[in-house]
């Protein structure tokens, strides 16, 4: 089956009109000495059909090269790169992200200037080039995609004993200064005729002046949607036409047209067009699900929904050698408590009473669809370790004529990928049932918080949110108990027992050895003690109104909350409202260490490490007692997020940060975050274990977790937005027949105090063909994995090394595809696998993130904050975070309810007459062009012109106009995609606040450094060429 890829043609290749057949394809990428394929390897024929004349652009300025990156010295020599090895001498030949360094293309020392120029990427001419080798996968095998129109079938390709094809041939041109000595002909741009699909009109740029439209290539059969339609524009001028031209310097080259390189928007829209709104059933092993950006209904038929588990590839290589060769990480992003839409079936609960779940005797895997019943139903064979176990008498059932139990469809654990078990006392701490969890609210009442009204705001809001405490679906009231503590340099505990007329305060001044001064009356039911609690919340702002204490403690606050939960023998969550660096004498005291001099040095990693070991030890203690910490931070200056945020990160809590909090601007964002956090679906005191079938195992885990051994992932709490990314490695061969099976089991305590097991099962296919591996990749999950592994590594590795490894691994993955899966072609062509055609743009977005980009202008706290956020993100959140959504609001159709189609994140997509909404999951911008239509401004802001728009507001006026209603609906749809309330910033074109908006235009060169997408693609291509050479 042909494997589609993207081709890019270099500046010095030009199609030769009038010659219909392909040039010779050399087995060794442009080395004529290997005209035949190596023995035993059949190379497939080149793409069929006549070559389309390339659409050449008029001469222009030379291309802007990738100034920011060079080749990765350590890997160019052919050593397999390690992912983030320990600190080691760096043999790189480039400095990371120089703001305005001259372009340098260091290459092998032996390369002459002419051959070096010949190996540089000149053009990217995108077409559907690159067919897989014969035998990679017969048609119809491999993951089923959406049904394709019959016109997509390509004609059969003849087997080729020799690399030459009959018919007119293109001979290698004579040596020139342009192509180096004896370089072979570079092939013309191809198209596959007869593969006509629906033409896409989106993003079809007009042809440059004085030129007809370029030859458009039809969409092609692919794993994740058809290829970009539209003109396939080549980068610079072609090979000089006659001898007269050869003598002089090469003609000036035209800069690469961004429309001719793969677009994330095109990939997202194409997947929506083919799979959106449909039912996706999980009954086939190894099928690739719709993208996270595609709305569809998921029906569990034996494998876990992609809402719970997404993989970097749905087809694992059979051997460790193949995995090493491709460099594609084998990983799963698991979100065990993911929110399920109301139209999908919630998880079934299986209760076997005192017997508990049926498990394999050897590996302890839980009963699931991968177990095979034998011996008339009396025994079952484990799908994970192949051990045969007896079926307990209570669980026995006869088998039908195909060896399936008669009750197969009545039992969720036999027919579904995800379900829950009620756990027995054996699964509980001290073999006794757990108590329902408790929430403790802890408010920093230091001078500045009282004076700026924050304490009053929190107390008022708590009255509202306590009415909405989360509860079990069938229960009328919440079983969660609540408690209250305020603090500055000392701690104040409150007794709010229901029979008291007034709340009572107890002060703990010994913050070195915190103890809980009261048990009875500290944790209470909100329903029973409502009047006392309201009384307390009214009194707290007045109680501390005259306090002038500005120093605070922090670690003792967490210690106190944990001790209170321990004393009550229940798991729970601390909600801490804190605003400054804890400088008072106490454990966990911090000093200001915001040192910009460390940026861009080997000591930069210290900025991401906690300042003291107190917080690491405290986090492990919290996890051991089921105490999760969520921190609402309101810093007006440096607060050492790397230290304060560690406990929320490791205990499965969340860190919310509101820098320079202003009541009138930021209160709504904070209140929305608080409401959402309290109402989240959540499990407490959790242990997760990931089991796999023989041949591979889970080796590395990333997320808000603590691990005291190599297998048990411990989480004080896990909510609907938290994901754990798991990396797998081979420890033996995998077989194509049995595939690769994964079972994720999470033991946890519910909001009602019941111990349960949540099970997610997923079957992946296995193949000994690299082509199948590439066809089944999911770019969004790959980027999630790379981001987490890089952000984990920043604690102990220089950022420069991490950036190099990311660039190098991107190049390795694409070079392996190029070498082993694509048709032979000129080495100067960039060929991308269809499933990874937007991997370079996403990897460049990751490289430009402030965590990996060493810039003194970026606050250290902001870098530490983003690092911690990403470590617990699921695939949908990381996709939006690294490639923000840009919506043209001025194109909204007021008569339609559909949101406007997103456009690429680049300044070139903006227009002075336009209004654009931009969101990355943390912040939202409304950008107003200088010539925005007055009727739109009137409809949205209720003012006559742009000059009258107040940019200080963070809320839009609620007007009845259609424009206002449609914009607010679009904003609410974007907000719905993020677990964080996004504060709206209104920016006018060419005004100073625009800088923050421009930073999110990720396809452009970063205002604070970082390559543009075009430059990065050139850089990656150069590195691929070096690997192939």
UniProtKB/TrEMBL annotation:
A Gene Ontology cellular-component term: endoplasmic reticulum exit site
Stretches for region Disordered: 1-263
Membrane spanning stretches: none
GO molecular function, one term: zinc ion binding
Record flagged with keyword Transport: yes
Family annotation (Pfam families): Gelsolin (PF00626), Sec23_BS (PF08033), Sec23_helical (PF04815), Sec23_trunk (PF04811), zf-Sec23_Sec24 (PF04810)
Bias (Pro residues) ranges: 56-65, 96-106, 136-159
Compositionally biased tracts (Low complexity): 44-55, 217-227
Any single GO BP term: in utero embryonic development
Domain annotation Sec23/Sec24 beta-sandwich: ranges: 683-766
Family annotation (Gene3D superfamilies): beta-sandwich domain of Sec23/24, Sec23/Sec24 helical domain, Severin, von Willebrand factor, type A domain, Zn-finger domain of Sec23/24
SUPFAM superfamilies the UniProt entry points to: beta-sandwich domain of Sec23/24, C-terminal, gelsolin-like domain of Sec23/24, Helical domain of Sec23/24, vWA-like
Subcellular location: Cytoplasm, Cytosol; Cytoplasmic vesicle, COPII-coated vesicle membrane; Endoplasmic reticulum membrane
Similarity comment: family membership: Belongs to the SEC23/SEC24 family. SEC24 subfamily.
Protein known as: SEC24 homolog D, COPII coat complex component
Species annotation: Prolemur simus
